[in-house]
């Protein structure tokens, strides 16, 4: 029996990188998945590859109306939602001196506000399912400092996770945050700080970047019934960086 059998999941930012790894593994583990992204081409291609248990929706996670459509699609296609993975996020390597207000607000909206909107949108569906698991992808920089905007938003995700866990525990809804370190994804390899990140990776105690699948292992655990007594907690996958 697969670990996510009979689970209906929503995964944001699911077309590439860590999100793609989560979507693939969820389907392999028996879940029925609605995944979203702004990259329509990559999303449609992945959905076609994965077959009938994966549905793609182009979705701006910062818009509440879009969230309502995603949940409605999941329910009408597969049934009540019992797993949400808030994975969508962006980073920007700029100093406080250089970052504009518009850039700052964009990071906060995508990385932080979207998590609130996602949690709020799935609650009625999870209540129909009589419980669920919400996995919020934060970052190592939700534990220790890093770039402005990114760090702020990832600390906020950690805090919102705890606040939501306290309020939703009695409903059988668990809420946890995952804190990856440097992961080898397109956002890293194609971003504006590639060389800086590669140099930083040499300082990691395990002396390498992680693969997306290593984060997925934790996300699957938290989404599954194996993590039935874990809520309001942070799960760090950083190769030992925050131990320094």
UniProtKB/TrEMBL annotation:
Family annotation (InterPro entries): KR_dom, NAD(P)-bd_dom_sf, SDR_fam
UniProt domain Ketoreductase: residue ranges: 7-185
Catalyzed chemical reaction(s): (S)-acetoin + NAD(+) = diacetyl + NADH + H(+)
Top EC group: oxidoreductase
SMART domains membership: PKS_KR (SM00822)
NCBIfam families: PRK07231.1 (NF005559)
Family per similarity comment: Belongs to the short-chain dehydrogenases/reductases (SDR) family.
Annotated protein name in UniProt: Diacetyl reductase [(S)-acetoin forming]
């Amino acid at each position: 029996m697969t670990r996510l059998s009979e689970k209906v999941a929503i995964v944001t930012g699911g077309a590439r990188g860590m999100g793609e790894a989560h979507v693939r593994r969820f389907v392999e583990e028996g879940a029925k998945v609605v995944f979203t992204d702004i990259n329509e081409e990559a999303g449609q291609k992945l959905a076609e590859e994965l077959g009938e248990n994966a549905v793609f929706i182009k979705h701006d996670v910062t818009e509440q109306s879009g969230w309502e459509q995603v949940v409605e699609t999941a329910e009408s296609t597969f049934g009540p939602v019992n797993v949400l993975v808030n994975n969508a996020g962006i980073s920007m390597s700029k100093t406080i001196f250089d970052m504009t207000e518009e850039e700052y607000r964009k990071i906060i909206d995508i990385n932080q506000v979207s998590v609130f909107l996602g949690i709020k949108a799935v609650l009625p569906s999870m209540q129909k399912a009589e419980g669920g698991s919400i996995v919020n992808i934060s970052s190592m920089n939700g534990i220790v400092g890093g770039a402005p905007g990114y760090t702020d938003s990832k600390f906020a995700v950690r805090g919102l996770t705890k606040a939501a866990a306290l309020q939703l525990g009695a409903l059988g809804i668990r809420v946890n945050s995952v804190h990856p370190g440097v992961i080898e994804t397109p956002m890293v390899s194609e971003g504006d700080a590639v060389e800086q990140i590669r140099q930083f990776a040499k300082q990691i105690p395990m002396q390498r970047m992680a693969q997306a699948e290593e984060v997925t292992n934790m996300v699957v655990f938290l989404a599954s019934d194996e993590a039935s007594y874990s809520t309001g907690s942070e799960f760090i996958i950083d190769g030992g960086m925050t131990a320094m």
